[in-house]
């Protein structure tokens, strides 16, 4: 497939040289691979190896994505190997292992094993050490001693403020979100949970099925939060896992089930739906209001 932007080929070659992955005399083929929020290129070397290079508009986006991949890897999650980032001024590049997409036995089992590894280790505070991004939107962070403060101050409230500023939500919508959050975060006792590292943007499009049957997680937006946040987002756009498998992941990770996980899934989906309202507009407002009615609000 032809490049969509010839200038990007020059930038990618320059970036790979700076990362020590390409010598000036070495011939490579650079091809456009795919795009969602950002363009992804496949770089093929003469020896048959390939590297994926993502063109990202902001240095901080590239850095925090690389940081997230490396942190997930340290906890036993299967991710593409990260070769580094390079700031080229107008854009930054993230160079990673190229994952050959395919099929094969073991994909679900591999994904479950990665998530169990990820959620098994407890942490003492909620949040993360630096701000990062969810999609193309800034995601605030910081350290918090309790779930309520963390999830309201740096997850729900910033998205509500952004949507209100764009006149996408009414005052009633905002108050209903707050009422649902305050009622059920207390009822389900989230402050009694020890936070775990989560992927933070775990939808089916951010899980690659390699040709070896392995499940690779990409595009993380990490923080120390509640694993149900990941699993609920995975349900939002067609999860490869069923409810029983999700409950097994939680119980294996030492998390009690205060009630029925199925009843809490839509609670956790409020945050990603607010993100989608701010990214894509009011078409997601119906989904938000459906959730609020489900929990007796709006």
UniProtKB/TrEMBL annotation:
Record's signal peptide: none
Family to which the UniProt record says this protein belongs: Belongs to the fructosamine kinase family.
Alphabetized InterPro entries for the sequence: Fructo-/Ketosamine-3-kinase, Kinase-like_dom_sf
Keyword Kinase: yes
GO MF terms held by the record: kinase activity
Name of protein: Fructosamine kinase
Protein's UniProt keywords contain Transferase: yes
Pfam family, one: Fructosamin_kin
Domain of life: Bacteria
Keywords assigned by UniProt, alphabetized: Kinase, Transferase
């Amino acid at each position: 497939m032809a490049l969509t932007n010839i200038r990007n080929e020059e930038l990618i070659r320059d970036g790979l040289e700076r990362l020590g992955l390409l010598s000036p005399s070495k011939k490579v083929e650079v091809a456009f691979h795919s795009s969602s929020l950002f363009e992804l290129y496949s770089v093929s070397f003469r020896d048959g190896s390939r590297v994926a290079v993502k063109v990202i508009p902001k240095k901080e986006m590239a850095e925090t994505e690389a940081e997230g991949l490396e942190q997930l890897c340290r906890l036993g999650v299967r991710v593409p190997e990260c070769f580094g980032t390079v700031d080229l001024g107008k854009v930054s590049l993230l160079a990673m292992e190229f994952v050959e997409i395919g099929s094969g036995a073991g994909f679900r089992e591999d994904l479950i094993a990665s998530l169990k590894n990820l959620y098994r280790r407890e942490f003492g505070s909620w949040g993360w050490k630096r701000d990062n991004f969810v999609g193309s939107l800034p995601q605030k962070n910081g350290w918090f001693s309790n779930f309520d403060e963390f999830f309201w101050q740096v997850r729900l409230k910033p998205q509500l403020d952004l949507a209100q500023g764009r006149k996408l939500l009414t005052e009633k919508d905002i108050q209903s979100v707050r009422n649902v959050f305050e009622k059920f975060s207390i009822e389900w006792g989230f402050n009694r949970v020890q936070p775990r590292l989560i992927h933070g943007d775990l939808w089916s499009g951010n899980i690659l099925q390699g040709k070896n049957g392995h499940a690779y997680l990409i595009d993380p937006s990490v923080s120390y939060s509640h694993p149900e946040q990941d699993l609920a987002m995975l349900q939002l756009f067609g999860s490869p896992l069923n409810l029983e498998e999700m409950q097994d992941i939680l119980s294996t990770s030492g998390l009690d089930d205060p009630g029925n996980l199925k009843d809490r899934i839509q609670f956790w989906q409020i945050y990603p739906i607010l993100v989608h309202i701010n990214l894509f507009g009011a078409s997601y407002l119906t989904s938000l209001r459906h959730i609020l009615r489900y929990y007796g609000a709006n």
